[in-house]
Write a structure and sequence with these properties.
alpha+beta, four-stranded antiparallel sheet, 384 residues, 14 helices, single chain
Length: 384
């Protein structure tokens, strides 16, 4: 028996519940439906593409089911761990059976059990109910609380009565004054040894018919889809606002760079000292040689020569500094003319041609008298 061959243990329930809970695309309509979708995807990949469960997890086709991620967070984490173990051992049909059992159990109530042969809810105490319990490997367990508040019981036991976990005759229950409740238990096997024990099944008090249960699931799914879409739109709005702010920031940054290098391109001996000072103090990321050249230019423009030789030397230095700065300004202005606000201006965008860089460096050493003096200037203005 195999679901891949369309003859699984609960094949009829599988076909019905898959259609009810799993749409043609996207996530399932509730958490257990999503568990079935994920397991089914792992089984499909194994039989159709040769990928085992570990491959699927590694390649991001499905999540690792043992992790506390939707739908295996909260109450379904133990289910995720068990499915992880089954799929890791290629026990595909057992994994599908386990998910289907949990789905059918979630649709059952304290009075009605899901019948996998008919896909209907049947009364637990009916013949169909008994057959359904047998098919699901679920047993009735009778719990008797006897002798409650009776003097013949020792004082410590009198308050709650003695718990007897077996089916007693009506006469015995009457004689011992027992309150009897019926629980549904499923046999579970230990993963590490052959010990068998039973686990009490938690059933819903919602006694509505099956069609209403599916309508409720559909309604909750539609609501979650709307909420998801709302959150998606909110994220998109936030993204658009961030993108708009980023565009404005990039536009301003590009404009600032263009203005700076345009001014550098058009600089001449008559450019005001205040303008050059402002350029030297810019917060834009410019080459340190440009900054040092601007500072040196300010220094010489502010000098007050008293002799003809001093005036001549001052003029020669200013001219020598302005020429390479003009060239740099022209080249980088041309480069930036091809940029749009969507482009990011980086340090490499405004890098200086190596020949010009070497020439400017040599010029600064010549003006300041030594490499050490230029290094000191760099430490003062450019080291961050």
């Amino acid at each position: 028996m195999s679901y891949w061959s369309d003859n699984g243990k609960y094949q009829k329930a599988y076909d019905f519940l898959f259609e009810k809970l799993i749409p043609h695309s996207g996530m399932a309509k509730n958490r257990l439906g999503e568990a079935l979708r994920l397991v089914n995807k792992a089984v499909y990949r194994y039989n159709n593409d040769g990928d085992d469960y570990d491959d699927c997890v590694h390649e991001g086709i499905i999540q690792e089911l043992s992790k506390k991620q939707y739908p295996f967070d909260g109450e379904y984490h133990p289910l995720g761990r068990e499915l992880d173990n089954l799929l890791s051992n290629n026990a595909h049909d057992d994994a599908i059976n386990l998910v289907l059992f949990n789905i059918m159990l979630s649709l059952s109530t304290t009075t009605h059990i899901y019948n996998p042969s008919s896909n209907r809810l049947v009364r637990i105490d009916s013949e169909a109910g008994k057959k359904a319990l047998k098919e699901l490997n679920v047993n009735k367990v009778f719990i008797n609380y006897c002798g409650k508040n009776e003097e013949w019981l020792p004082e410590p036991l009198r308050k709650d009565g003695v718990k007897i976990s077996k089916n007693l005759s009506e006469e015995t229950k009457k004689e011992l004054k027992c309150d009897t409740i019926t629980e549904l238990h499923k046999e579970v096997k230990s993963r590490y040894n052959s010990t068998k024990k039973t686990q009490k099944l938690k059933l819903s008090q919602d006694n509505s018919i099956l069609s209403k249960k599916f309508k409720k699931i559909e309604s909750e799914h539609a609501k979650s889809v709307r909420e998801h879409e709302k959150k998606r739109k909110e994220r998109m709005e936030i993204y658009k606002k961030q993108e708009k702010r980023e565009m404005k920031r990039k536009f301003k940054r590009l404009t600032d760079y263009r203005q700076f290098y345009e001014m550098l391109k058009n600089m001449n001996a008559n450019t005001r000292v205040a303008t050059i000072k402002k350029m030297a103090q810019t917060k834009l990321s410019i080459d340190s040689l440009i900054r040092m050249a601007l500072i040196t230019l300010v220094e010489y423009k502010e000098k007050k020569p008293t002799t003809a030789d001093q005036k001549k030397h001052r003029g020669e230095v200013i001219t020598k500094l302005i020429l390479p700065l003009n060239t740099i300004g022209e080249e980088i202005t041309h480069t930036l003319s091809r940029y749009t606000p969507r482009d990011t201006v980086t340090r490499s965008t405004t890098s200086i041609d190596q020949i010009i860089q070497d020439g400017l460096d040599k010029l600064l050493v010549e003006i300041h008298g030594s490499n050490e003096a230029v290094d000191e200037l760099w430490r003062k203005c450019c080291r961050h």
